[in-house]
Design brief:
The protein has 621 residues and is an alpha/beta fold. It contains 21 helices and 27 strands. The relative contact order is 0.08. The structure holds 6-O-phosphono-alpha-D-glucopyranose. 6-O-phosphono-alpha-D-glucopyranose binds next to helix 10.
């Protein structure tokens, strides 16, 4: 998740690039950069920090970044990037654009080049010097390599040749000093659009960057390459066949455009879950194996730990609760989960054999950071699961496994939770393999199931209107109960928190079998009970629990798999998820719960993205 903007035309490019980047800051904001041609000479300026830092550097160099001020030399072509780090911490060097070794080619890139280690090795052998730690820099050198060796200085062919070798996802824009009239853009699994202007054309990752100049937009599709000049846009497949496609007219206002046409960031982020999960797992599963670069746990180290600990807050804590269940099941090692603010002060039983896994979207939550420091002080090995590259928790932990959720703007965490679960599954399956607690067939079965998750989430999102309708009938509820057994209970905890956070409706999560020991006293006619039924082993027991609450007048919404007919029949209404191995069911069952919380809040007129009393990142105790 980064922002891309490119421009070729009559006007001064720099103000267009800077303004476009500011409009895309929601896609990433840890560093930014621009490159442009000035008298056919390439200029590259990039800076760690917010876009203002880049803008100030440009001003210090004598460039104007506002409209209406003449540039000393006219700049008619350029491109810019605002970054959300994935490979390599935020720094000037790791910021985009990346220039090739012999300064012919410059690229900006969104996505992940999965085979960058191999490509890097190949290019280093050819004598190329790398200046950054990013996967993206590989693209610049690789295109230049083909441009100079086997493509006869034909930029299009060089881009084509490089794309044939790149595995992974990309939205890529390429500028070449010897072709001062064009930009080439390519796309696979990352958004890319072309804006058609008058005497100018634009390239961007998202519409907000160009909406001020044109509403005439073309969506580039996967495996396509666009050749963009001042007065023409040509579209080809990656194999070079010409593609004809109509543009469409954008009628969103600028604010809606930032949210990708959704009313709230939360909804946009729920719809990004398939791509976020895919980005988190796909580069780490290769040829039926999980590949976690530099993973610090071998068989002895895992077995030496008498138990594993999860430490986190809020939604991340709930991911840890699911993690406990998964690791205990597949590794047969005891796991403890603690809320970070409790862990720190409970005199935890931690020593140098302990393994402590810390989960945090922001990587800056003070309670979590302090708990991690306490674990380190006691000698534990600390592994973090973090979304923000280079954040405090990522830096200070012994090993970090990054989630690839991209920036999460809405306070209520949605896609980040799913990517945290993704990392936990990867780690759990890999640990189980390392210590021999699952055999190869079971291991491969889990991986096959995990790989299908993004597609299955997309299928559920197609029928989100079912949840919307249900919420429109129940948003006046005063109190809601979420019940489940096993993994479904931990999922219920997250579902309940989501509802509380954004709709302000009181709710509680309870293990299905525990309700009768007290809380069932609160169930009366019309009480809404949301019930997760994804665990085959526990299904009959849950169905009994549903009968208990229905006998007291409860209305039951079930979240269950479409092949579990008994479960569907036991509820008043059911939202069905695609069939999946029960161990992975939390990856699917949470999305309908997030949608439920969302629509309840929208119906009540709540400020969904900025709920009262809450902050995205809590850096106080
Ligand atoms: C805050 C947010 C929660 C979040 C928690 C942990 O309380 O409001 O949504 O789950 O912090 O945040 P982290 O960034 O550490 O995952």
């Amino acid at each position: 998740m980064c922002g891309i903007v490119g421009y070729v035309g009559d006007r001064d490019a720099l103000p267009i690039l800077i303004k476009g980047l500011k409009k895309l800051e929601y896609r990433g904001y840890d560093s930014s950069g621009v490159t442009f041609l000035e008298d056919d000479r390439i200029r590259l300026i990039k800076k760690k920090g917010r876009i203002e830092v880049l803008e100030n550097s440009l001003k210090e160099l004598g460039y104007n970044t506002d409209f209406g001020h003449e540039q000393e030399k006219k700049i008619c072509l350029g491109m810019g990037h605002t970054r959300w780090a994935t490979h390599g911490a935020p720094s000037d060097e790791n910021a985009h654009p990346h220039l090739s070794d012999r300064r012919h080619v410059c690229v900006i890139h969104n996505g992940i080049i999965e085979n960058y280690t191999e490509l890097r090795g190949f290019l280093i052998e050819k004598g190329v010097r790398f200046l950054s730690e990013t996967d993206s820099e590989v693209a610049a050198h690789l295109i230049e390599y083909h441009y100079l060796t086997n493509c006869n200085a034909d930029l299009f062919s060089a881009v084509q040749a490089a794309l044939m070798e790149i595995e992974g996802s990309y939205a890529l824009v390429v500028l070449c000093t010897e072709h001062p009239d064009l930009l080439i853009a390519a796309k696979k699994d990352n958004p890319l659009i072309i804006g058609y202007g008058e005497g100018a054309n634009y390239i961007a990752s998202d519409i907000p960057a160009v909406i001020e100049y044109t509403r005439n937009v073309l969506i580039v599709e996967d495996n396509e390459i666009a050749v963009v000049r001042r007065d023409s846009v040509e579209l080809f497949t990656v194999h070079g066949q010409k593609v004809e496609r109509d543009t469409f007219r954008v009628d969103w206002d600028a604010e809606a455009a930032e949210k990708g046409g959704f009313e709230h960031f939360m909804m946009k982020e729920i719809f990004e879950e398939p791509s976020a999960v895919k980005a988190t797992i796909s580069s780490r599963i290769r040829s039926n194996r999980i590949v976690l670069d530099g993973f610090p746990l071998n068989r002895d180290r895992i077995l030496k730990a008498s138990r594993i600990h999860f430490v986190a807050c809020g939604t991340a804590y709930h991911a840890g609760c699911v993690g406990k269940n998964i690791i205990e099941k597949v590794c047969r090692i005891p796991v403890e989960v603690d809320v970070a603010s409790e862990f720190r002060y409970k005199d935890p039983i931690i020593d140098e054999n302990s393994i402590v896994i810390i989960i945090s979207q922001s990587g800056e939550t003070l309670d979590t950071l302090a708990a991690m420091r306490e674990a380190k002080r006691r000698g534990a090995l600390t592994i973090s699961i973090v979304n923000v590259v280079g954040s405090s928790i990522a830096r200070e932990s012994d090993y970090v496994l990054y989630t690839a959720a991209g920036p999460e703007i809405s306070v209520a965490s949605t896609k980040a939770y799913l990517t945290q679960l993704s990392c936990i599954y990867l780690m759990a399956f890999e640990m189980a393999r390392i210590i021999g607690r699952i055999d190869q067939a079971e291991y491969e079965h889990y991986l096959d199931e995990l790989i299908l998750v993004p597609e299955k989430i997309s299928l559920m999102l197609e029928k989100q209107s079912e949840i919307q309708r249900f919420a429109s009938e129940h948003f006046n509820a005063k109190s809601i109960f979420f019940i489940g057994r096993g993994l479904d209970y931990f999922l219920s905890m997250e579902a309940s928190l989501k509802l509380k956070e954004i709709s302000y409706i009181h709710s509680e999560a309870y293990p299905g079998g525990e309700l009768k020991h007290g809380t069932i006293a609160l169930i009366e006619k019309g009480t809404l009970v949301v019930c997760s039924l994804t665990q085959d082993r526990l299904l009959e027991k849950m169905i009994s629990n549903i009968s208990e609450v229905k006998a007291r007048g409860a209305v039951v919404l079930g979240i269950t798999s479409q092949d579990k007919e008994n479960a569907i029949r036991s509820c008043d209404e059911a939202f069905t998820i695609p069939p999946i191995d029960p161990i992975l069911a939390p990856m699917l069952a949470v999305t309908p719960c997030q949608l439920f919380a969302y629509y309840m809040a929208v119906n009540k007129g709540c400020d969904v993205d900025k709920p009262r009393n809450l902050a995205k990142s809590v850096t106080v105790e």
